[in-house]
Amino acid sequence: MLGLVTTHDGDLPIFMRPLDGNSSDKERISAMVTAVMTQLRETLEEEQEERLAVFDSGGYSEANMKRYNEAKIKWISRVPETSTEAKTAVEEEPTEWQALSDGSGQYRTCIRDLPQGKERWVIVRTKAGEQAERRQMEKKVKKAKAQWEKQLWHLSKQEFACQSDAETAWKQAMKGKPAFLTVSSTSQEEGHYQHKGRPKKDGAPDSTAWHVMSTLTVDQSEVEAQIKKQASFIVATNVLDEQRLSHEQVYLTYKEQGGVERGFRFLKDPLFLASSVAVSKPERVMALSFIMVLCLLVYRLAEHLLRRQLASTSQTVPNQINQPTDRPTMRWIFQCFEGIDLLHIRVGLREHLQVLGLQPLHQKILRLLGSAYCQFYFFSP
To answer: Between the CA of residue 163 and those of 88, 149, 188, 245, what are the distances in Å?
Structure first.
């Protein structure tokens, strides 16, 4: 298992640590965050930038947050939906929601005084999240309705000796019913006659039996309430001052913490061929991990440099579908440079080198990257 820390700007890896696969994620993440923030505090000036540790709900726990607060580490984390405090916060009826500036959703805030200290919670609900939950909820409602209709049909076919037994059976059957289904029932008495043929109009039945007849409906208001509840999630921080970090910045900063996942995607890519190297000794695993993360660092630095140059000069390059973009991936740039050859020409004892296949797009990229890159291709910027 590999622990990786990247920067917010550029997804540059700044810390890596091979971890025991049998260790606790929460404990290892806490130790790693503390080590990184301690190093940054010792090497960088405090005034340069607000340093925030951003991680997913896997790193959130009472012990970890208390440790960070004691170490004066500022953090942003998603709160696990399974915690009692999170369930209570999501179920609370707020006075009003505030719209996100980009129109992608809405949020509300609250301050929680927890055992580990005070935290500012930003409860977010996005339109994309609601649409996803709505699709899941439609499938869930359809499946549950079919199951309960079948169950209630079987219940209606059962005979009970008295009305009380029928009502007791109905109450027992209602256990486990989803909140979005509404069931109403009536008890019906049915007479049984021993002799054949049509019974006389005023004839008394020889015995009677009771049936439970049920009507099943879907409570759409409850469905909507559950969709909104499931689509909501909580992002917490120990930066309580809204002037230092606005509510929306808390959410946006957390949202952009996918750099680590993108880093792992690079390391796990089959083209990286890391799986072809078999090592078993811990020191060799650490050495291989270091080389892999070093490759990621070079890749990200080149990507960050190119994107920054494109943005500063208001230029673009074509993407995979020939549309202009100012945020290309280096993987795509590498593919663009495929097919360039180096020709060696020998004339007597002298050798001339010539680059073949260099197109205007290649020259544009090399100019953006700088003169050092142009020299490798014998190209003058």
So the answer is: 40, 22, 8, 64
DSSP state letter for 133: H
- Residue 261 sits at the vertex; the CA angle it makes with 256 and 262, to the nearest 5 degrees, is 85
**Residues 160-199: tens digit of each pLDDT:** 888 888 889 888 989 989 999 999 988 888 776 677 777 6
Strand (E) or helix (H) holding 39: helix 25-43
- Spatial separation of the C-alpha atoms in residues 59 and 30, rounded to whole Å: 7
User: How far is residue 79's CA from residue 105's CA, in Å, rounded to a whole number?
Assistant: 19
Question: How far is 368 from 313, CA to CA, in rounded Å?
Answer: 9
User: Mind listing the pLDDT tens digit for each residue in 202-224?
Assistant: 766 667 788 888 899 999 999 99
Strand 317-318 and strand 105-114: the pairing is unpaired
Residue in 216, 227, 219 with CA at minimum distance from that of residue 147:
216
Give strand pairing partners of 183: 216
Yes or no: say if 378 and 354 are a contact pair by the CB < 8 Å rule.
Answer: yes
**pLDDT tens for each residue of 229-286:** 899 999 999 999 888 889 999 998 888 777 677 777 777 777 666 666 777 787 888 8
Q: Which tokens is 218 given?
A: 């879907």
Rg value, the chain, Cα: 33
Calculate helix-pair angle for 220-230, 127-156, nearest 10 degrees: 140
Count of CB atoms within 10 A of residue 38's CB? 12
What are the sequence ranges of the domains in the chain?
A: 307-376
Name the percent of the chain in helix, strand, coil, to the closest 5: 45, 25, 30
CB atoms within 10 A of CB 124: 26
Going by C-beta distance under 8 Å and a sequence separation of 6 or more, which residues neighbour residue 102? Answer: none
Residue with the larger pLDDT of the pair 42 and 343: 343
Segment holding 366, helix H or strand E: helix 360-369
Q: What is the pLDDT of residues 278-296, one digit of tens each?
A: 777 878 888 888 888 888 8
